[in-house]
Amino acid sequence: MLLQVCPNGARTPDEHPALSAEPSVIAADVAASVQVSEATTHVGVGSVHVHPKDPDGCDSLASEHVDRWIRAFRGACPHVELGVTTGAWSASDPAERCALIGEWQELPDIASVNWHEDGAEDVAGLLLSRGIGVEAGIWTLEAAERWAVSPLAGRCTRVLVEIQDIPGDQVLAEARAILGIIRSARPASSILLHGEERSAWPAFEIARGLRLDTRIGLEDTLALPDGAVAASNAQLVDLCGRRLAD
């Protein structure tokens, strides 16, 4: 199983003491996550999904910001797969997103593309042409169906099934429905299942039970399973690594 850490997401620094607009701060937390997972469990962090920020703490696809964050993470976690977002909230116009991505000088290993967003295939195609792997972000049944018929579906490194913030008792049914579409269309696809907010811990346990890749970090939840506020990404990763190792 792959364990991915998602350290910040679209959250701004005022949402948690461990969040920052300074890439070295987030990179150090992720490096600590990698170290603690390797030291305490047999499940190490194999991938990072980070949201590069501008100096105000807002997501950015501009090369001056993306390049700076990539360099910080390459230095802190040199042997871990590094991924970034291409979310439309950073640049709503698909042509603008592609133009910004085309200017990147420091390239990540992988980038997520949300398949429900306008221009998803154009963004994915550009990433692939630049040698960057694609994680297909699937948030809904409609997005899963759209991805299933895409000519790029077979070229995606993995499918990132993102269960949105819904009540915990609804997560299993939603996950099963989306996974059914993906497996029917592309049975051999690598799938990473995770949730957000209320869905985060239920989705983690489902992924654990199904032996699917999964992820954890302050992007997806600020809380531990008991509701207490997590101190850091390293604490969340340590807990998940121990559970996956059981």
Question: Could you characterize what this model shows?
Answer:
- This protein is of the alpha/beta class and 246 residues long.
- It has helices at residues 23-40, 63-76, 94-102, 120-129, 141-148, 171-185, 200-210, 233-245, and strands at residues 3-5, 45-50, 81-85, 110-114, 133-138, 158-163, 191-195, 214-216.
- An eight-stranded parallel beta sheet has the order 7-6-5-4-3-2-1-8.
- The longest helix is centred in the N-terminal third of the chain and has 18 residues, at 23-40.
- The model has no long low-confidence stretch (mean pLDDT 95).
- Output the number of helix runs: 8
Fraction of residues in β-strands: 15-25%
Spatial order of the strands forming the largest sheet = 7-6-5-4-3-2-1-8
Range of helix content = 25-40%
Radius of gyration: 17 Å
- Which class of secondary structure composition applies to the elements? alpha/beta
Global geometry: globular
- The whole-number mean of residue pLDDT values reads 95
* Largest sheet geometry: 8 strands, parallel
How many β-strand runs? 8
Helices and strands, in order, run as EHEHEHEHEHEHEHEH
Q: Could you give the distance between the termini?
A: 13 Å
Spans of 5+ residues with little confidence (pLDDT < 50)? Answer: none
